[in-house]
Design goal:
It is built from 14 helices and 16 strands. By secondary structure, it is of the alpha+beta class. It has three domains: 228 residues, Bira Bifunctional Protein, Domain 2 (BirA Bifunctional Protein, domain 2), CATH 3.30.930.10; 52 residues, no CATH class; 90 residues, 3-Layer(aba) Sandwich (Rossmann fold). Strands 1-5-6-11-10-9-7-8 form an eight-stranded mixed beta sheet. Helix 6 runs parallel beside helix 9. The structure holds adenosine-5'-triphosphate and magnesium ion. The site of adenosine-5'-triphosphate has 19 residues, from strand 6, strand 10, strand 11 and helix 11.
Length: 414
């Protein structure tokens, strides 16, 4: 009997886990500068939280959620995204009281039952931010800039930012009506489109099958109410004022129901087939809809795996090695205690001023030759050998494992 990780999941180890950690470290740095605080929410929630907030007629709720019952028959779901969970935590703990303009971020695993392919998994990671209590377009612009800065911190600076406005509860119904009329005038729509025409007509705009048929799509911009128009113009002028290039894409919609007004997507052509690496927008009604106060919000999420694919393709990791590995070997079994004490010392305080090291050894059950082989296998850059003759003179042998040179150094010097 042999086991494999479930379809669509991955074990992340070795250099890949270091890359993911680096991305998360950079994200935490950027978030700190913008005053965003981290929140860790549970990996599972009541299933109805997601059905309610994301919306029944969405891909996530219709086919991608992992839903299960616990022993007491509670219907739970592995979280497919972070916004609903964070909003639930925000409301549950009345975070608005201490933090009326709360800025929060999360980093963690998300679960969606999708057909796995490069950059699309059933368990993947998102890094996301949510900005509550600020209805001003400055909040939208800041969220977009934040996502952009985060990507730039990992070398992804050639991106395109696509934005659109989905209107508000006043003007969107009007746009929906116009859209439905338009789509009904077309023939032979795919099955998904026919179904969504009744449940969620906006979703037809991003149908991959029928999009070529949509030649004269009504423009949402001509249906927006004045307040949504002004708001969208302000977001754009803020982006311009800080030199953030963007494109208005009137066909851009998001796969979740809670969005209102400005939505955006950030794409990189360095990912391959799935070029959206981050996405987000404003959702002014979600907090209220899940039982909280009437508090507007705007946020984004990026997919760590896709971001790392893009960073890799750009060459950001070309010289990325992780910490220097140092192996401690003993040529004389009696020096085990000295070598062990030395290993613990450099692990704590660094080696010759370098604190970014990983220390391995000593092992006392192998001869020196097999210890050196072991050091090679684990790709140590240096092996420090404790040998009797040198040790008695207060010295150690340092072997450079790449060019096979060796030098003697005084123990007191390292
Ligand atoms: P797509 O259209 O590619 O399915 P989405 O609209 O479902 O994306 P969002 O819900 O907006 O994606 O999630 C934000 C980001 O999370 C995406 O831009 C992407 O980078 C990442 N993401 C979404 N689904 C997956 C997945 N199954 N595997 C890996 N990353 C994903
Ligand atoms: Mg999706």
């Amino acid at each position: 009997m042999s086991y494999k990780a479930p379809r669509g999941t991955r074990d992340i180890f070795g250099i890949n886990v270091l890359k993911m950690n680096l991305l998360e470290l950079k994200a935490r740095e950027v978030f700190k500068k913008h005053g965003f605080e981290e929140v860790k929410t549970p990996i599972f929630e009541e299933a109805s939280l997601f059905t309610r907030s994301i919306g029944q007629a969405t891909d996530i709720v219709e086919k991608e959620m992992y839903i299960f019952e616990d022993k007491k028959g509670r219907k739970l779901a592995l979280r497919p995204e972070g916004t609903a969970s964070l909003a639930r935590a925000f409301v549950e703990h009345r975070m608005d009281i201490s933090n009326p303009v709360g800025r929060f971020f999360y980093i963690g695993e998300m679960f969606r039952y999708e057909r796995p392919q490069a950059g699309r998994y059933r368990q993947f990671h998102q890094i996301g931010a949510e900005f509550y209590g600020n209805s001003s377009p400055t909040a939208d612009a800041e969220i977009i800039v934040l996502a952009k800065d985060l990507l730039a911190a990992i070398g992804i600076d050639k991106i395109s930012v696509n934005i659109n406005s989905l209107g508000c509860e006043k003007c969107r119904p009007f746009f929906k009506e116009v859209l439905v009329k338009y789509f009904e005038s077309l023939h032979n729509l795919c099955q998904d489109c026919q179904r969504r025409l009744k449940t969620n007509p906006l979703r037809l705009l991003d149908c991959k099958i029928d999009s070529y048929k949509f030649t004269e799509i009504p423009k949402i911009s001509s249906c927006l109410c004045n307040s949504c128009k002004d708001d969208f113009h302000s977001v754009q002028s803020l982006l311009k004022s800080i030199g953030c290039a963007y494109t208005v894409d009137e066909k851009l919609v998001r796969g979740l129901d809670y969005y209102t007004r400005t939505i955006f997507e950030i794409c990189s052509d360095m990912v391959g087939s799935h070029d959206a690496i981050a996405a987000g927008g404003r959702y002014d009604n979600l907090v209220k809809e899940i039982g909280g106060p009437n508090i507007p919000a705007v946020g984004f999420a990026l997919g760590s795996e896709r971001v790392l694919i893009a960073a890799q393709n750009i060459g950001f990791f070309n010289n990325f090695k992780g910490p220097e590995k140092i192996f401690i070997a003993i040529a004389d079994q009696e020096l085990l205690n000295n070598a062990f004490a030395f290993a613990m010392k450099i692990a704590r305080y660094g080696f010759k001023g370098n604190k970014d090291i990983s220390v391995f050894g000593p092992v006392n059950d192998k001869n020196l030759t097999s210890q050196l082989k072991f050091a090679d296998k684990m790709q140590a850059s240096k092996t420090i050998v404790f040998a009797r003759e040198e040790f008695n003179k207060g010295k150690l042998l340092i072997k450079n494992m790449k060019n096979r040179t060796q030098e003697e150094v005084s123990i007191s010097d390292v």
